[in-house]
Amino acid sequence: MFTNFNPIFSIGLDFGAPVNGQAENAIFRCHFTGVKYGVSSCNWNSLDQWVWNCLFADCHVGLNQCIGYCQAYGNVFLRSAWYDISGSPYKNAMVNNTSINSTCFLQTEDGYLRGNKIYSNISTDSFYTSQGSVLVDNTIRCPNNTWPLARVRNGSNMVIGNTFSKTNAIWKSWPIQPPFMEFDHGIGGSYNANKQIEKCIDNNPATSFATQVSGFAGIKWNCPLGTKRTVVKYTLSAPPQQRRQITRQF
Description:
It is a single chain. The protein is an all-beta fold. The chain has one domain. The chain has no helices and 25 strands. The strands form 4 sheets. It has an 8-stranded parallel beta sheet with strand order 1-4-7-10-13-16-19-22, with no helix packed on it. Strands 2-5-8-11-14-17-20-23 form an 8-stranded parallel beta sheet, with no helix packed on it. The chain is globular. The model is unreliable at about 180-190 (pLDDT under 50).
C-alpha cells in the first residue's frame, strides 16, 4: 500500500529508469492513495508494466505512461485529479477497469479498450484517444453538461458495442467527437489545464482558451451535423486578468 505521499511530486512505483528503463513488471493488488503518480513508466524501454486489480484513489494520475506503457486490467480508479491513465505513443490495453468521478479516464494515443466502466459526475472529458484505437463494450456515463464523451483523432478507429448513457446539452448527437484538426485541444498537452477549445464559445466570460503551441496557432471548429450557422459577428475577449476585447462585425 502506497499512501499519503507528498502530493506535489511523488511516485508510488517508478519504472522510468534514466538509462535502460524497466520492462516486464507485474503489479498485482496494490493500493495507491494520495500520491501524485501511482505507477510511472517514463522511458522508451519501460514497456509492459502489467497492472492488475489495483486501486488508485485520489491520485493526480493513476498510471503515468509518458513514453512507456502499461497493460491495465481490472483496476479501480477513484477521483483522479488529472487522468486515470495518461501518455504513451505505444499500443496500450485497458480492459475491465472501473473509473468513478475522475477528471478523465484516458488521455493517451492509440490503444485497446474493452469492458471499461466510466462513471463521472465531473464536467470534463471522459477520454481522449488518437488514431488506431479499438473500443469494444465500454460503458461511459457522464453528466449532462460534459463535453463529448469520447474524443478520437485522425481516424482509423474501431468502435463496437459501447454504451454512452448521456451526451451533453450542446452536442446532443455526438457521444463521440470525430477527427478534429491539430488546432483543437486534444493533442497531448497542447492546451493549458482547464482551458480547452470549447471554452472559446461557452458564453462564460470567466473561462478562456489557452494553447501551449508556440509560433503560429489558430482555432478551427467542426460543427455537428445540423448546427452550421453563418457568422455575422464575433468577439474575442482576453481572460479577466488581461481585460482586452476585440469585436469584428460583418
